[in-house]
Amino acid sequence: MNIHEYQAKELLAKWGVPIPKGVAAFSVEEAVAATKQLPGPLYVVKAQIHAGGRGKGKFKELPATAKGGVRLAKSAEEVGLAAADMLGNTLVTIQTGDAGKQVNRLYVTDGVDIAKEFYLAFLVDRATGRVACVASTEGGMDIETVAHDTPEKIQTFTIDPATGWRAHHGRSVAAALGLSGDLAKQAADTAAKLYAAFIGTDASQIEINPLAVTDDGKLMVLDAKVGFDPNALGRHPDLVALRDLTEEDPAEVEASKYDLAFIKLDGNIGCLVNGAGLAMATMDIIKLNGAFPANFLDVGGGADKEKVTNAFKLILADPAVEGILVNIFGGIMRCDIIAEGIIAAAKEVNLGVPLVVRLEGTNVELGKEILANSGLPIVSADDLGDAARKIVAEVKKAA
Fold first, then answer.
1. How far apart are CA 58 and CA 269, in angstroms?
2. 53 among annotated binding-site residues
3. 55 assigned binding-site residue
4. What is the pLDDT of residues 9-40, one digit of tens each?
5. Is 297 exposed, middle or buried (0-12, 13-18, 19+ CB in 10 A)?
6. What top-level branch of life does the organism fall under (predicted)?
7. What is the value of pTM for the model shown?
8. Is 207 a known active-site residue?
9. Is 333 marked within a binding site?
């Protein structure tokens, strides 16, 4: 789960991380009023969407010459003009795709004079089972570009969560950023606080870009991107309250209501599978046979009739879907129960596209018999390869 920049900064401030003062705004009036709470005379008005590249982004509704989603303002009037441009309009960045995202929130912050920018991030390193700290002297830039063009400017080390943060980790961060003296101390202290926040919130990512040195020698977090491990959110109801559903795909939000793991893709073959690995294999074999999956959908190991029905509804809500492949391995799940659920779901949603079902596992023969006697145009498959070939052929036939 991701949160907005202003939420991330408010959260990090609770852990003692140095950030400039800022105020969230949901209207032009609130944005203008925010200037009265800030030192000034320089302000930064920032569009709040779950995507990077806001400063270089373009608004669909504004002229191509208009500035992006991060603007400097030298008065309350200029803040109001920037807010009026942004709120309610669609910002397109390198990370949003052509569709862009509508801006519904702003963050008005105190402007600071920047002497130098750095990059600092904490991530889950699944390869080592540790927390990775990534630091670079090239802050304020796309880190992907830095990694591609000048990888030597990025340094990474890991922290064992069993022993936690130690003084030498702070020294490593300072050295990676090329800082010495008081700034090195500030870097070590800030990194330690960021690590504490990372562990304390069960974060999956805390990315600071830029971490800046101001003209008066202070180290400050000027932008923050924070994401959390969804499996740990049960321990953090305060973090769940920060979720902005308008920033998420509506289908994925709907799927979460039924505990379905669903990700929309760009293909035309809907997939309903139990097990993440099996779902990945199913998508791969669909592509191998010349078509493209319309989604990743894992119904889990204990799906019942209601779950299968809701999964069908999710798949069919996508107008691009021209056929559905159901691939179920019945271990805990009995194939006869799944077959009954598929039939009930197909009848309830008034299925109008080809449906191929591959069942394997407990009571598989009984499950196939139930499908065959359903009276519905359900095509049964013997194995995964057979299923992929049949759904691609059925879709081509129906076209």
1. 33
2. yes
3. yes
4. 999 999 999 999 999 999 999 999 999 999 98
5. buried
6. Bacteria
7. 0.80
8. yes
9. yes
